[in-house]
Structures are given as C-alpha cells and as structure tokens.
Amino acid sequence: QAKANGGGHCCFFSPRMNQQASDRLILAAALRDAIAHDRLRLFYQPQVHACSGTLYGVEALSRWIDPSLGFVSPARFIAVAEETGQIEAIGKWSLRAACRQMAQWIRDGVEVPVVSVNLSPLHFRDETLPRFVSELLAETGIPPHSLTIEITESTMIDNYDRTIRVAQRLREMGVGMSMDDFGTGFSSLSNLAGLPVNEVKIDRSFMTGLESIEKVRAVVMAVVRIGQSLGMTVVAEGVEHEEQRRLLAEMECDVLQGYMFSKPLPAEELAAWFAAYQPSGLSG
Ligand code: C2E
Ligand code: MG
Ligand code: MG
Ligand code: MG
Fold first, then answer.
1. How confident is the model at residue 75 (pLDDT cuts 50, 70, 90)?
2. In degrees to the nearest 10, what's the CA dihedral of 73, 76, 82, 86?
3. pLDDT at res. 6
4. Is 75 in the pocket of ligand 1 (CB under 6 A)?
5. Which residues neighbour ligand 4 (ion) by CB within 5 Å?
C-alpha cells in the first residue's frame, strides 16, 4: 500500500499520522463516556438586532470538559463525532437540551425569542428528524418558531434531495433553518439558493478584515444584499468591535453575534447577562 503511494520512502502511516490516529481514538472513547454520563453542556451566546440592540435570540454551543483531557473544543470533538457516528447522539442531545432550556426560560419569564442549535449535514440524511423535533416541541411545549436549526457545514451534503426534503418539512412545521458559516468551506451560493433556509450567517473569518480591507467589506456587503434579496435574515458572527458593528448596521445586516455582546454563557449566566443588558441602538 505504501509503495502504491509513490516512492519506496513513503510510509502509509507517518509517526505523526499514527499519533493523530491514536489521539482520535482516545478522544472518541472519552467522548463515548461523556455522552453516556451526560457530561456535555450547552452554552448560549446572545444575538442582537443590529439597529435596536434588542435580543434576537441565542445560539447553543456544546461544551465538553473531560476529567482527564480537560477542555476539548467543539471544533475537535464534533469532527471526531462525525467520523465515529457519535454525532447522531450529540445532535439529538443538543436539540433536547436546548428545547428544555427554552421551556425553562419561558417558565422563568426570561424573554429569549429563539434558540439556535447546530446540526451536522449528516443529520439531514435521517428522514425521522422532523418527527423527532415535533415530538420534542410537543414534549417541551415550546412554539416551533422559538427553535432554529443551523446547518453547520462541516462536511459536504451528500444526499442533496433528501436534505432539502427534511429541511423543508422542518420549515413547514414552523422551525427556523439557518445556513451557518456562509462564505467558507462547504457553504456555497448554490446551497444558499437551493436549501430552504430563512437565515444566513456570515462566517466569522470575514470580520477581521471588515474594518481594514475594502475587498472584504465589498464581499460582506454583497452577502448582505444576497440574503436580503432571498428574503433571509442575515446574521454576522464574530463581531468584536464597535467599528464592525457600525459598518454592519450601515450595510443593513440584520443581526449581530460576537464577543462584543457576550461570549457563550451557561444558561443561568445568560439569564443574568440578559437581565443586566441595556440595548443600545445606533448612535449615529
Ligand atoms: P459556529 O456554529 O460557527 O459557532 C460560532 C463559533 O464562534 C463558536 O465557537 C463561538 O464561541 C465563536 N465565537 C462567537 N463570537 C466570537 C467572537 O466574537 N470572536 C471569536 N474569536 N469567536 C467567536 P465554538 O463554540 O468553539 O464552536 C466552534 C464550532 O463547533 C461551531 O461554529 C460549530 O460549527 C461547532 N459546534 C459547536 N457546538 C456544536 C454542536 O452542538 N453540534 C454541532 N454539530 N456543531 C457544534
Ligand atoms: Mg453555528
Ligand atoms: Mg457559524
Ligand atoms: Mg463559524
């Protein structure tokens, strides 16, 4: 096998690849344990209307602190979970946890309009997803429009027709659909036009050049216009500075999310953040 790859000097597994493979195995085993012992948590990051500063919703983001591995970033463990099939359990767990939290906020009078949950494209292969979601809505009693599902395109959509069908059914139920990380990776213009999404999130990587690079500004402006003309809500992620906020508001980007408002927080801290939050609109 190694020879088929070219010269005889080439090894199939380099020591580094071996290390990475065993890291993945360790991670996968620890993750199985974490899922079984319910050690994953959801943190919530606020999203605010660009013009008024009022709360638009929150995004639920998975957090995992392993007793021996410590903090493992979702970027790492989600990728492993997609390879091992554990993503299936994580997706259902995060949907359930987010809907229960929303029900709790409603009971507590915390006015969070919508919670967004990240799902891998792999979930949309499963035609029972809409039924799972409708049972969850019935069980928790939350209105369908208080849930949005972000298609987080970590992998390519492999069954396009089925993905559209599943997403369409969720939309018909009244659940929001959002295209995450738009403008990078697998998140393409053809997907934006072809998938039944009512929201698009401009990838955080565009925020760094927003203030300083004219071309980046032009691209972001174009994405906002595309989203608008498709009738979608446009969300910018990774907003850290006042100048970015001003530029995005000027471009008529609808919603902003980023450290400028808050980092992702545990549910109780989110409620405290919201209680203390003073929405401020555009000052000029
Ligand atoms: P994402 O869905 O695009 O989430 C936004 C990421 O940007 C989050 O990283 C968030 O903490 C970070 N972020 C938000 N505002 C700022 C900012 O102002 N500056 C900077 N530097 N970063 C900011 P996080 O929580 O590490 O998640 C990384 C990715 O992992 C997510 O990107 C999402 O693709 C994936 N992910 C997280 N939780 C889940 C999950 O439960 N299921 C799935 N399938 N994927 C998840
Ligand atoms: Mg997301
Ligand atoms: Mg995103
Ligand atoms: Mg992103």
1. very high
2. -50
3. 44
4. yes
5. 181, 204
Q: Which residue has the higher pLDDT, 20 or 209?
A: 209
The minimum-distance atom of ligand 1 relative to the CA of 82 is 44
Position 198 scores a pLDDT of 98
Q: Can you give the pTM of this predicted structure?
A: 0.93
Give the residue whose CA is nearest to atom 34 of ligand 1: 152
Q: Which ligand is nearest to the CA of 185?
A: 4
Instruction: Please answer whether residues 211 and 182 qualify as being in contact, where contact means their C-beta atoms are separated by less than 8 angstroms.
Output: no
**pLDDT score of 71 more than 70:** yes
Q: How far is the CA of 61 from the centre of ligand 1 (A)?
A: 6
Query: Which residue's alpha carbon is at the smallest distance from atom 20 of ligand 1?
Result: 238
User: Which ligand lies nearest to the CA atom of residue 63 in the structure?
Assistant: 1
Alpha-carbon gap, residue 7 to 118, rounded angstroms: 43
pLDDT at 17: 66
Q: Which long-range contacts (CB under 8 A, 24 or more apart) does 223-231 make?
A: 223/182, 223/183, 224/248, 224/251, 224/252, 224/253, 226/189, 226/192, 226/200, 227/200, 228/252, 230/192, 230/193, 230/200, 231/198
Q: How confident is the model at residue 4 (pLDDT cuts 50, 70, 90)?
A: very low
To test the ligand 1 pocket, which listed residue (40, 47, 61) has its Cβ within 8 A of the most ligand atoms?
A: 61
For tokens 């792999």, name the residue: 122
The ipTM of this complex is: 0.98
- The Cα 23–Cα 31 span in angstroms is 12
**Ligand 1 contact via 238 beta carbon (within 6 Å):** yes
